[in-house]
TrEMBL record:
Residues 299-321 are annotated as: Disordered. Gene3D superfamilies: Jelly Rolls (2.60.120.10). InterPro entries: Pirin, Pirin_C_dom, Pirin_N_dom, RmlC-like_jellyroll, RmlC_Cupin_sf. Belongs to the pirin family. Residues 193-293 form the Pirin C-terminal domain. This is Pirin family protein. Residues 45-141 form the Pirin N-terminal domain.
Length: 321
């Protein structure tokens, strides 16, 4: 999924100095951002108060949207470098096309995982014949320096491991949770899990104290460590936790995101993750010139042009404001 802001901010993210080594409660409110022609997303990362959670560097939550009489998601071909995209749906279907020739339709609770590496382009759209609702999340994972120029590839995993407890059902999207490991390839220690809580239930989820965590509320009415988290909001939890208390008043869905704090500093602008502003400029120029990223075949329409680079020099602001 593309960042379709016409004037995207360049951000320096990463580093361990601003990571909370102890448990905290930091509620992040979303920024509303238009996506394509018919979708508005809630952007949780990067946020004014928090830019990364482990290697997770971008989180958009969208829907539930009524798309019965609309084309649904229509995101034209656009480029990526230095990251992985994670597509996660609760309702609807999204067809993925990329410059490697990959073609797959991702459905609810299936993992669509694209590793951009040195360079890739892709497009995402609702199929012509689609269901009435669209609801999901699009997430990016920053690749560590040793892997950021890896060969691009796409993975589609319809079957994912599950963890269950009374009142709780968890699907492991990325990484490992309570001994269950996702088949999606991860390049740094992290976890992503979809949590479903039954109405009136309480549960305690095992965590890794060396990870920092955040929880996004997808739907329902849930409390995370005693804190109510409204739909579309995300609670940052810091490090040092061995378990996480959860409670739901009604049927609720959450996304758990976590990982070892990302040690490297990264520069993120538009759809690129790099280490310097010069790398960002080069990637933009190559996209606009038709170099390096290849061609996405099968999408009916033009590619998305890159926004104009900011004139101000990048400022290292760390992981928090």
């Amino acid at each position: 999924m593309s960042n379709l802001e016409t004037e995207p901010q360049a951000r320096v993210c990463g580093g361990r100095e601003d990571v909370s080594a102890r448990p905290v409660h930091e509620l992040l409110t979303p920024k509303l951002v238009p996506l394509g022609t018919s979708t508005v997303v809630r952007r949780l990362l990067p946020n004014l108060g928090r830019r990364m959670v482990g290697a997770w560097c971008f989180v958009d939550h969208y829907g539930p949207d009524d798309i019965e009489r609309s084309p649904g998601m229509q995101v034209a071909p656009h480029p990526h470098t230095g990251l992985q995209t994670v597509s996660w749906l609760h309702d609807g279907e999204v067809t993925h096309r990329d410059s490697l020739g990959s073609l797959a339709t991702v459905r609810p609770r299936e993992l669509g995982l694209m590793t951009a590496g040195r360079a890739i382009a892709h497009a995402e759209q609702s199929p012509l014949e689609h269901g009435p609702k669209l609801h999901g999340a699009q997430l990016w994972v920053a690749l560590p320096g040793a892997d950021r120029h890896t060969e691009p590839h796409f993975e589609h995993h319809p079957e994912l491991p599950e963890v269950t407890a009374p009142g709780l059902h968890a699907t492991v999207i990325m990484g490992e949770l309570d001994g269950a490991r996702s088949p999606g390839r991860a390049y740094s220690p992290l976890v992503g899990a979809d949590l479903t809580l039954a109405a009136g239930s309480s549960a305690r989820l095992p965590l890794d104290p060396d990870f920092e965590y955040a929880v996004l509320s997808m739907s329902g009415d849930a409390e995370v460590d005693g804190v109510p988290v409204e739909r579309g909001s995300m609670l940052y939890l810091g490090c040092g936790r061995r378990e996480l208390p959860l409670r739901a008043g009604v049927d609720s869905s959450l996304l758990l995101l976590g990982g070892e704090p990302f040690e490297e500093k990264i520069v993120m602008w538009w759809n690129f993750v790099a280490r310097t502003g010069e790398e960002i400029g080069q990637a933009r120029e190559e996209w606009m010139n038709g170099d390096r990223f290849g061609t996405v075949h099968g999408y009916d329409g033009p590619s998305i042009p890159a926004p104009t680079l900011p004139t101000a020099p990048l400022k290292a602001r760390g992981r928090t404001r």
